[in-house]
What we know:
The protein folds into 4 domains: about 15-205, Immunoglobulin-like (Sandwich), CATH 2.60.40.3490; about 210-310, Immunoglobulin-like (Sandwich), CATH 2.60.40; about 310-535, TIM Barrel (Alpha-Beta Barrel), CATH 3.20.20.140; about 540-649, Immunoglobulins (Immunoglobulin-like). The chain has 8 helices and 39 strands. The chain is mainly β and about 650 residues long. A hairpin with a 4-residue loop joins strand 19 and strand 20.
Amino acid sequence: MSKRYVTDLKGYSGPVDDISPYHYYQHIYWNLRGKWRRILYDWTRRAPADATARITPTQTMAGERVTLSLEIILGKTPLGPGGRIAVYFPMSFGGIGCAGALSAFQGPDGERGYGARITSHASCDGVSLITLVHSTGSVFTVVEVIVAEGTLAAGDVVTILIGDPACKPPMVCEKAKTFPFRVAIDHAGDGEFRPVLPHPSVTNVGHQAHYLRCFAPATPRVGERFAIHVVAADLWNHNPSHVHQGQLTITATGGEISGPRTVTFPLEAHGSLVVPGLAVQSSSVTRIQVCDETNGLMGQTNPICPEAAPAGLSLYYGEIHSHTELSDGSGTPEDSYRWARDVEGLDFAALADHFEDGQSYNYTLADKWHITREVTEAFHRPGEFVTLLGYEIGTLEAHRNVYFADGVGRMIVEGPGGEKVTMDNVYAKLAETDYILIPHAPKFHGINWHRPHDPDHQRLVEICSWWGVSEEGGPLSVQEALDLGYKFGFTGGTDNHYAEAGNPYYGGITGVYAASLTRRAIFDALMARRTIATTGPRMIITFALNGALLGSELTLAADMPRHIAARAITVEPVQAVEVIRNGEVVCAVAGEGRRDVPLLWTDTQNLQPLAPPRQMSDECFAYYYLRVRTVTGTLGWASPIWVHLDKEA
């Protein structure tokens, strides 16, 4: 007879072995993590303890197993029996793929486990320590060291070995990031933990390179000098290899280029190299190839096509939905911007951390807002790399992200006891600021499209991300919103929680047709809905209707034909380029293995039955947008064009 496990853990105090493994994990995950988040929340807001902490080594390599030694050096305040030291580990420590290794250390009641072990010892005789490891794997780990006997005085050291060398040590992570450890001391054993500052941290760097990732501007002018980014990427997480060096040979296919043809990749570049001085010599499609013969590596840039850009505009790529350890992620804000700029070669980026009180357990809200603004300004370089100030508001349906046109913005999320931000008050709270509000992952988080809507500020929707594609499929979809009368342009994002803006492992990116690479121009392009979205690859997608660009609105007589001109230039061969009208495919061109597919189509159907009154706006219009499918399953979209019915014509 199979064993019947206990699944209701409310008030349960029996043996751990009788609990359903799934329910036990959920109990640990939600209750134990929640408990320690509340403890961390409190100690973050207290004066620091008179102690210091250091960790060795301070630099590790992605994927490599290593033993870390964390030392806490006591100050004048003694630590006697019942006193405690707590260490809150950074999220994703131990690795994503090897997450189970951490949860096998020890259970919440101290029972011993297998795998990598965490132990502790004191520098002085007569002191006995108890080490408890509270962990659900790389998502959450806290080490608690309790003084059982003896007293630690000024200068005494408690050493916590993370990955006892007698067992199998853990890796720090597969990701090249900064991992801060939050340490606190409860001297009296009464729960009044105080932080040990500054936080000791480990910098994890990229491993040996296995391929090259190459990025170029999408639509530079013919003869205009530009730079390409070349990243010598490892296999763990396509981190830039910290130890790479080599010689690069630069060639092109599809068109001629000028500029350097051989370049040294120096060790001090640490896997991320900017190669300036290149230019394309024709307006057609060019792809630049980079080869490192010494190391047997090669890569090719995204397509470059000057003629694809509308007059006065250029296509820029960015990702504006990445989280960090400021809220419910790992990696610092600096890590996120460096990843966007130096690893993904993006033109613009933004932080999108949560600021609700429950997400401010490791910082105060005021500190987080200060850090967000400060780091966003520090990385902003007009003409080179643009940053947008923003954050995610988690109390809005399906969550919405807000971004500002300047570096000042406004924080409308309040601390404990404050009024929650809702769809009923969000527009009033943001009034008189220059902002844009973007719903994300509506199909996956749930959304009510019938809530208050401000079409002057809620002008885009995140059509794809780590969560999946929200384009089609029922009342929560983007198509449902368009059918109701929302005039949404499209963005793509990752919503990753590892400070890796633009990492294609996690979803999409956004392209904007902007007048220049400045904050104002990028923001204006977002507001104008001159956007494309993809599930990761850098496509060039153009889309116009009777000369009006993507994101536009125009008014036509019912019998006037609608002439559509579009083009998809992709990394992978195209399966199909499709025109969607009012949620249905009305024209499709097969890719036939091509990576440059034009589409010309004229809609002659009378506009009147295609433009019914829309519920959310009472306007009469038809909407058209473009979708690109590749043979590998990646997707791209051009924002809609809305054609209003001229009732007086």
